[in-house]
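The instructor's notes for this session suggest beginning with a concrete chain rather than abstract definitions. Hand out the sequence below and ask the class to guess, before any prediction is shown, which regions might be ordered.
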Amino acid sequence: MMIGEMNMKLTDNRPSLYIYCDGGFGNRFNSLVSGLLISKFTKIDPVIVWPITNWCRSKFSTLFDNEFEVVEHNLNYFGINTHEYEFLMHGNFLNFNTQVHHPQNFRSIDDICAFCLNSSKDKIVYNNDAIPYYIGKDLIGVVIKDLIFNKNIIREANNYIQNNLGEEFVGIHLRNTDFFDPHKPNFNQIYQYVLENRNKKYFVCSDDKEMEDMFNELENVFVYPKTSYVKKLTEDGEWRSIIVDDTGIEYPFNVERSDESVQQAIVDLYILSKSDIMKTSDSSFLQTAILLKNSYENG
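After discussion, reveal the predicted structure:
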């Protein structure tokens, strides 16, 4: 069955798709774009759920200029009356006493859209920190092209590119708090590689000032200057220590990302997306930059 051939459920009141975006920006972005794609194909009205947490203190309206309906509920909001909602989520994190369907368990975008349209519930909660395997880059690109990053963020990024980098430069993602040992990139090896290739310009995207300062010593390296960095939520823990967020969910990320640090990270992200990206990890932040790059180049 093709998307255009679906039989849409007839109802006087259009259902709503609550696209729950939590975690760091990369995870939020994955849930946002895949949820918006489902909304686009089903014509179910989207509501962006964007809680303000230690993962991300920036409001949706601070990062994007799209005029979606946005609420800032935490996940426990939907646990009050679970019978009202259909849950499409990658985990039942708060042990809701209802069935939760994992988005990855569907076979295609057609299947998950048909499930939403045929649900007996008119409120659907969608949350997935990864883009489902059956959604290709071409479909995601359709949604990304409609997303409008805040004009001040884009202006700042474009000015930095124009004044420092020009049209051709290599982007290196070295966000130190994203990685588990022993899966961290070999920072010293990357440093040596950049040192030995002085004929190219490199942009280092990082959330660690010490890392930035190390690479910034090289004449062919450029780092967007920041005034705010990610901090530890619990100072006596490690970056990947287990913490409990405001909803009571445990995560292995001991981070506190202020509004200012998130906005500056998005400037980094946009600059990175305009580069010849060096693959350094499977970080969701890096994957977001790659998605943006592919969308811009194919747009």
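Then share the key points. The longest strand covers residues 16-20. Residues 1-12 have pLDDT under 50 and may be disordered.
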